[in-house]
């Protein structure tokens, strides 16, 4: 009998993973690490998030407090002696402070707390697999390449954001200091929307495309490719990486790869079609940060009531990522039998529909916690 522990189930990816796991697993075989937020109970938070993935109250109502391990990775000492952890056979660790902002909790949670949790799980005799969700960007990809999986060797000082620095550090630390942990590192590329539900579960990162097309200018070339995958593809991939006997300890990209990635011109075309507008391609130009500094006073008109500094920071960060023109090789994952991901442009209409009426500022809040 297997017992699956999933973390991060109130979030975008973890919520989708749990929604798929509920279809596959006996409810008694699922444990969820989650936090209570004030009066908002951990179980209710998880159930409410599952509703965003279209799960009915009949299904979400099957979850009870017996499925929940209440815990905060910022204070792991408060939950690590929970005896329920001793029954776990498989872990999917989606929890993290997934923010490009300057958040002091990034290191505390994504490195220190995550390491304490992984160390505790490495001491559980029944543990067969620990799937840790990393991020493909943490390897500091060389621009213009299709990146193959490898362990991270880069210098921490080279990272643009604390988030990727921390994600790189925890991968290295678990690999070097926990040789007994049956560790599989799954590195998603850029997760945008759900191939059926669009941005109903989360508008994370989708707003960047909206913002760039509203501006009609950005830092990338329209022919540059970007490796985007829908969250439901990632969820299925993570369950395969958890269950498949053919998985080897090591690193797997959960990505579109060169074949299923699209370029910005294709995204522009698909967004225009879905929104009933004209593509910006004919008037598009590549600009640098100086241009955006100059037009900062027009941001509220373009994006809704906003903090100009946060918008400038967002343009700067995502602009640097957009120029990379990289894809992440997914051959290993597809060889396990995972179906190929839908191209972003094939479900962009659902993302456009599900965010109609929302301003860029409203959409971006989930990425700047
Ligand atoms: N989204 C992407 O494009 C992308 C790409 C590559 C990799 N990833 C990785 O995928 C994973 C999930 O990302 P996501 O986009 O789903 O992020 P998300 O929506 O922000 O969800 C993060 C989850 O982590 C939990 N968490 C945060 N701090 C915690 C703490 N101190 N203790 C316990 N749980 C905590 C959150 O719980 P609360 O609700 O209690 O805060 C939430 O459930 C992350 O590891 C991220 O690095 C994401």
TrEMBL record:
Quick one: signal sequence residues?
none
Question: What GO biological process, any one, is recorded here?
Answer: long-chain fatty-acyl-CoA metabolic process
Q: Which residues form the Thioester reductase (TE) domain?
A: 6-237
The UniProt GO MF terms for this protein read: alcohol-forming very long-chain fatty acyl-CoA reductase activity
Against Pfam families, the record matches this protein to: NAD_binding_4 (PF07993)
Query: What InterPro entries has UniProt attached to this entry?
Result: FAR, FAR_NAD-bd, NAD(P)-bd_dom_sf
Record's SUPFAM superfamilies?
NAD(P)-binding Rossmann-fold domains (SSF51735)
The molecule here is called NAD(P)H-binding protein
- Organism from which the protein derives: Mangrovibacter phragmitis
